[in-house]
Amino acid sequence: MSSRGPLQAQILCDRIYDEGKKSIPEHPYFFETDVEIRLIGGNSKSPAERFWNGNNMIYILQKAGHNEESDLMEESKADDAIYESELLQKESSGPVPLSVRRAKQLISLYTMVQNPNMTHLKISKPVALPPLWIRCDSSDPEHTCWLGAEPLKTGNKITGIYLHMVTCDGPTADKTHFADLGELKMAHKIKHHSSVMMTKGFAQYELIRAAAIEDTLVESESNIYIDITWNTVDKILQTPPLTSAATLNITLESGDPRSPVYQLYRELQFLLALAEGLKTGVTEWPEPLESESAVEVVQEFLTDLKTKLDGFCTSGNKNETEKIKCDTAAVDSSIKSIFSERGDLDFAEQLWCKMRSVSSYQELVECFTLIIRSLEHGEIQPWIHQGSSSLLSKLIQQSYHGKIDGISLSGITPIQMLLEIGLDKMKKDYVSFFIGQELATLTYLDYFISTSVDLQEQVHRVQKLHHMLEIMVSCTVLLQFKHENLFPLTQTCIKYYKENPLNEKHAFQLPIRPALVKKFYQNDHPEIWKVDISSGHGQKEVKTTWQVSTNPPAEHMTSNNIGLLCDSTVNGDSEERMYFITMAKCSQVQFT
């Protein structure tokens, strides 16, 4: 083999690695026109994480995308096989694998680059590079989907190479294709000359599945999985013992119409529409749902207040509270107690509830005109909570002294006024829940309700509060969680959202005892079940992994048939589930 290939590979790998030490490059690099190289940082999720437990940077190799500009570059650099893409990655359905033959060539190049004995290649002293994983197209008889390699070191010296091979068959429901644990252990023992072996099990169950509503499925990214690990596996597909370590992975998308807090979600959507209108100048007003216009509703509300000597009527508030509660007719009484509308709504908060039916800018202006006129004439002296900094609250406080500042209800002012009272009301709703359930203190929640940031950021933080509320309510309703589990989950959510933007695809994790949720999975099929057979320690450790999963073990295999439940198993387990069967093996090659 010519020294040109390994030398080019060395130069490219060193360059990518050096850049990665500063910051992980977002763009791919290319090698010999057909190979795309991406550097994945240690903090990012590794595509090969199921079969490699390292936490450092790794190279991921796959087939390069084809476009006209790359052809021009190829022509202009015919004598130079290495070049960097300056283009954004072309959108595609997903990563494209290389042929197994090509992947083996690349593994050989990587191995040569790392071998200090290859002096005839005139490569400078090898530096231990990050591990390499290559997406493969399963075109060989073993159906290889991944090939991997990483250097073995003693101190700073590279002494060998660690090779990985992942193969996959399926999907199938035929358990005669499943391995026998005893045979797996014997094969590992013979291959690696092991006298002492350890086994470790892993199982993942989906606790909450998409439920059917009137013969349709609710489109949602929400799911709650439990990952369970244990030592000493007795048999293939063993049910995890209750002494196992378990972690819940909770991904929840807000807005499920079945949620007890769905009405609050709709309230939040109106708040977001106002915030967007304030930012862009274009507001999407909701379709009127009531026969009465918002102006008529507000007028009746003001007329009612005028008849009250003290300007506030508890019974009237109760009626309004009942009106704006979510429809709990079909909801169990235990769910009602999780989140209920506050009973201490002040004038501004009740006004927000009335004006959520506003369907145009003109209607909004007319509503505030009525309110300000009543304040100016002293016809009402409504009660409001202390601490509000909204413009309407300031006008109400001024009205107590018989005079209010003039205000022009034009431009964005009416939208901002309504947004402010909505923000105040919803902040108090969320704070009332978290403090009332003893899940957080006011100090812990201060970040989410702070008025020291602009209105847009305040709205963004209220969205975070709502997402946390949806998570707590779902875990209470669906998993029957008590305070001992909700409290640490709340702290996890608060910590994450103080440091990160809203992300409803983030999986919040909670360590739990398997016994707490056993009833949800004990009679179910796992989504993933695997056993690791290992021997040796440190760099001499070798491992064999056997796994079944309902989905392919790699995203570049998504064009294959996906393992799904049979049609007759949506509400039961009478049929077997379709599984992909994956085997991961390794070997070590010593250079000295």
Give the percentage of residues in beta strands.
15-25%
Structural class: alpha+beta
What is the gyration radius calculated from CA atoms?
31 Å
Strand order, biggest sheet? 4-1-2-3-5-6-7-16-15-14-8-11-12-13
User: How helical, in percent, are the residues?
Assistant: 25-40%
Structural features:
592 residues, alpha+beta, 19% strand, elongated, kinetochore, cell division
How would you describe the overall organization of this protein?
- The protein has 592 residues and is α+β, with helices and mostly antiparallel strands.
- The chain is built from 16 helices and 16 strands.
- The strands form 2 sheets. The protein has a 14-stranded mixed β-sheet with strand order 4-1-2-3-5-6-7-16-15-14-8-11-12-13.
- It is elongated, with a radius of gyration of 31 Å.
Annotate the secondary structure layout:
Layout: H1 4-22, E1 29-31, E2 35-40, E3 58-63, H2 68-76, E4 82-84, H3 100-114, E5 132-135, E6 144-154, E7 157-172, H4 181-192, E8 198-208, E9 212-213, E10 216-217, E11 223-231, E12 245-251, H5 262-280, H6 294-306, H7 314-324, H8 333-336, H9 347-355, H10 361-376, H11 391-399, H12 413-436, H13 442-449, H14 455-479, H15 483-499, E13 508-512, H16 514-521, E14 528-535, E15 542-549, E16 579-590
Parallel strand pairs: 3-5
Antiparallel strand pairs: 1-2, 1-4, 2-3, 5-6, 6-7, 7-16, 8-11, 8-14, 9-10, 11-12, 12-13, 14-15, 15-16
Helix pairs in contact: 1-3, 5-12, 5-14, 6-10, 9-12, 12-14, 14-15
